Amino acid sequence: MKVSQDLVLDVSEVLLTEEQIGAKVVELGQQISTDYAGRQLTLVSVLKGSLPFMADLMRSISLPLRIDLMEVSSYGGTTTESSGLVRILKDLSAPIEGRDVLLVEDIIDTGLTLNYLLRYLKGKNPRSIKVCALLDKPARRLVEIPLDYVGFQIPDAFVVGYGLDFGEVYRNLRFVGVLRPEAYES
């Protein structure tokens, strides 16, 4: 993997600007605040990609809320394809039984990882569980998943930025862009 010193040079197209993302996150936060009015919400971020999204989203929600973090792996190293095998690397730090849970994801691709996580978390007996995803890539879906809050539908392209990575790089870009194939095919 050869990464440019200027990460933007590895991006062929900006799909979503920082301003578009910011406006959508505020809109999602307002809708979630309305939908959960009078209730306490637990946001569960799936590390590492959704961390910037969850940080911005929680600041846009005007409710009492808790946060928790999980880390899962379904990709191997610097591959661009999910292996389909999901491993929990870091589990929740607090029980969610009887709580309203919102699972916060950066991107829904095949749906395999999310399908596994939803079944896993439902086994912890939350009061409710819904999904909020910044990006939805329906062209790659292998498993139908109920998505309750979606920021943007995107085409079938390998994207980076705003938490999304390739080989742990590009997460710090403030936009979502298409990674040039040369950056991941070397």
Look at the structure and give the CATH class: Alpha Beta
**CATH fold-level assignment:** Rossmann fold
Order of helices and strands: EHEHEEEHEEEEH
Beta-strand share of residues: 25-35%
* Helical fraction: 10-25%
Average of per-residue pLDDT values = 92
Query: Total number of helical segments?
Result: 4
**What's the total number of strands?**
9
Q: State the major sheet.
A: 6 strands, mixed
**Which parts are unreliable, with pLDDT below 50 for 5 consecutive residues or more?**
none
If classified by CATH, what would the architecture be? 3-Layer(aba) Sandwich
The best one-word shape is globular
Structure, described:
- Helices cover 23% and strands 33% of the residues.
- The longest helix is centred in the N-terminal third of the chain and has 18 residues, at 18-35.
- Helix 1 packs across helix 2 (51-59).
- The N and C termini lie close together (6 Å).
- The protein has 186 residues and is an alpha/beta fold.
- The strands form two sheets. A six-stranded mixed sheet has the order 4-3-2-5-6-7, sandwiched between helices. A three-stranded antiparallel sheet has the order 1-9-8.
- The chain is globular.
- It has a single domain (19-154), classed as Rossmann fold (3-Layer(aba) Sandwich), CATH 3.40.50.
- It has helices at residues 18-35, 51-59, 112-122, 181-185, and strands at residues 11-16, 41-47, 65-75, 82-90, 100-108, 128-136, 149-153, 159-160, 176-179.
